[in-house]
Each structure stands twice: as C-alpha cells, then as structure tokens.
Specification:
The structure holds 2 protein chains of 2 kinds.
Chain A: H1 9-23, H2 35-42, H3 46-58, E1 62-65, E2 69-72, H4 76-100, H5 105-118
Antiparallel strand pairs in A: 1-2
Chain B: E1 3-14, E2 17-28, E3 32-36, H1 43-50, E4 58-63, H2 70-73, E5 76-79, H3 91-101, H4 107-117, H5 130-142, E6 148-152, H6 160-173, E7 179-183, H7 187-190, E8 196-201, E9 204-210, H8 211-218, H9 222-237
Parallel strand pairs in B: 3-7, 3-8, 5-6, 6-7
Antiparallel strand pairs in B: 1-2, 1-4, 8-9
Helix pairs in contact in B: 4-5
The chains are: A mainly alpha, B alpha/beta.
C-alpha cells in the first residue's frame, strides 16, 4: 500500500480497514490480521497499526478481545451506513474539485454518469 | 508506558565548542525514535554519550534508570557511524567475538540475519564491499536481544533493496520491551517507522514530538517538516 506521508499513517490504515469492511472484503465477525502481520505487510511501525486498531475500536468498528484478536463489529445495517458515508465523502471531494474548475451541477452530473457508464465492465 | 531513556539538561563541550547544549527528552519503552538533523548538529555525539563512549560535560543521561557504563553496555546494542569490525576477521568470527562480549547475543538469530542479508560466515570482512560490511554490522547489532538499539546512520552504504530488507527485518523483530534510536538522512524513506522524532540543530532540540501528531498538525510529511525546520535556520543565518 502506498501511503501519503503528509497525513497520519494510522488514519490511512483506519481508512483502509473501513473501506474493506464497507466493500465486504472484511465481513462482520471476521478477525483482522494481527498487529505484527499487518505491520509486516504494510512495512510500517507496529505501534502505528496498534494505534489504528485502538482508534477503530473507539469508533466502534472493531472489538479487541485480549489474547484472541481484533474482530469486525456491527451488523449489515452498520456496514451499509459505513458504505454510504464513504461514498458520500468520495463524491463530495470529487464535486469540490470540479466546482473549483468551474463546472456547473448539471455538467458534473453528466460527467459522473458518463464516467460511471465507461467504468462498467 | 515507562521511559527507557531519559536525557536531562545534557550538555557536551569539546574544548570550547558546544556539541550539545542543554538537551532534554525521553524515549519510551517500545518506541522507535528518529534523530534528525543536518551534519554537525550533534546526533553522533548524543548517540555516543548514550552508548557510553563519551561522557557528558554536564547534565545526565539514564538508560533504564542507570547512567551509561558497563551495566548499560550489556543492554545497549550500538551501531557506530564508522566500521568497528576488524578487517582480518571473517563474518562468523565477528559473530563469535560479539557472542563472547555480549550475553544477549543470539547466534541462531545472527545466522538467520546473515541468510536474509545474503552473507556467509566464512566471508572475510576485508573482502566485503561497503554495503556488505554495513549488512554484516547490522546483523551483529540486531542479533543482540538488547533493551535499546542505537543506530547511527544505518542505511549509509545500502542500496534501496537492501534498505527495504533491513526495514523488513526491523519490523519483524520489533519487540515492545525494546526501544530504538535511529539517526538518518534518508528521512523520507524511513519516516513511517518513527513513533517520535527529535530534530537537532547546532546542538539544541529545534523541534520534537510524536511523528503522527506532527504530520496532523502541520499537514506535512516529516521530510517536509525537516526542510521547513532547517530551511529557516539557514536563511536566518544568512
């Protein structure tokens, strides 16, 4: 994974895990990789992964059980809400860029529709 | 979390020239700290004091609550900035030498590290390239199960692939009961391993803190903060 060093790395790891939960790659009840394994995969400091897990737990996405591991929390509804939130923030960022380039709402909608059609497999 | 290293009002003068002026900081157990700064900012002097190779002019330094000396040398694994290995030795003999010296040296771990680095015990130090010597030295340092690792420019002579190998080994072997102090000029490449950073400038701490907090506060990478910090110093002097 490529990190943007301008932003805290633990936040980027949190985003990565949230995205995997939202896409269904990580299922509710599934165990996350151990801190050490994920640190090895991402080649980052294990303390940084630990921090991401602690913050994800604080936000209610995962639950860490002493001695066993960290598991994805929630139900189908929570996953759908997370998915929606991630979609909204992606769209907001994209719209903001296009607005700054001078596109009108209708033009943006047309561009988005065209891009979505082209991206179809 | 307890502090493994404590530096309190540390000053070091070489004759009249102050290499370190009133430095204080703590390194918690289980943390990797980046010691950053341009050449001549005092990094090596600080590391040598922690390694017990130089004495402070004033102020004090504690490792596990003890001032550097015989007791701390048994727990501190130090990679100096210049090659300390005897050139006539083979890599394996250097390992035996370390094994005799340090009770925490683990020969099996050393063998494993040599394999990762692509070195063989029978190779003579004098036959190795600069980069290979660097790898042998790092293998020796990491083969110790120390409390504190002090690495002065560990990536000096290494190619990008070797640097990555070392970083992988570092992450794989990282223990929460040990700490690491690393000086480097490869800030961009290594910054994501740092829990904390200390920026030294002309013997004083210019900036220090939690690496992630600094990124968040300044919306910049540690490398960019480095350029900002020392860019200012230079322009002020001109």
């Amino acid at each position: 994974m490529e990190f943007n060093d301008k932003a805290p790395i633990y936040v980027q790891i949190m985003d990565l895990i949230k995205q995997r939960i939202a896409s269904g790659e990580l299922k509710v009840g599934e165990q996350l990789p151990s801190v050490r394994d994920l640190a090895g995969q991402l080649v980052v400091n294990p303390n940084t992964v630990q921090r991401a897990y602690v913050e994800l737990e604080r936000e209610g996405y995962v639950d860490t059980q002493r001695g066993t591991g960290t598991f994805v929390l929630g139900d189908r509804g929570a996953v759908d809400r997370l998915r929606e939130r991630l979609a909204c923030s992606a769209v907001e960022a994209c719209v903001a860029t296009l607005r700054s380039l001078g596109y009108s709402p209708d033009e943006i909608a047309a561009l988005a529709a065209a891009a979505a059609r082209e991206a179809q497999p | 979390m307890s502090e493994l290293v404590e530096v309190v009002h540390l000053t070091k003068r070489y004759l009249t020239n102050a290499a370190l002026a009133d430095i204080s900081f703590q390194l918690p157990e289980g943390h990797i700290m980046g010691l950053l700064g341009p050449n001549g900012s005092g990094k090596t002097t600080l590391m040598k004091i922690l390694g017990g190779l130089l004495y402070p002019t004033s102020g004090s330094v504690f490792i596990d609550g003890v001032q550097p000396g015989i007791q701390t040398k048994a727990r501190v694994s130090f990679l100096p900035d210049v090659n300390q290995l005897n050139r006539w030795m083979s890599v394996g003999e250097a390992g035996d030498f370390f094994h005799d010296f340090y009770a925490d040296f683990e020969p099996q771990r050393f063998e494993g590290l040599l394999k990762v680095m692509g070195l063989r015990p029978e190779q003579k130090i004098s036959s190795l390239s600069k980069g290979m010597i660097e790898k042998a030295r790092l293998s020796l340092v990491f083969a110790r199960k120390a409390r504190l690792y002090i690495l002065d420019e560990p990536f000096g002579g290494l190619d990008p692939l070797a640097r990555r190998q070392i970083l992988d080994a570092l992450v794989a072997d990282f223990r929460s009961d040990a700490s690491m102090l690393v000086s480097t000029q490869m800030v961009g490449e290594v910054e994501r391993f740092f829990d904390d950073v200390v920026f030294l400038g002309s013997g004083s701490i210019v900036l220090s803190g939690d690496a992630e907090d600094l990124r968040a506060q300044r919306n910049a990478s540690i490398e960019e903060i480095y350029r900002e910090v020392y860019g200012h110093v230079e322009t002020r002097q001109i």
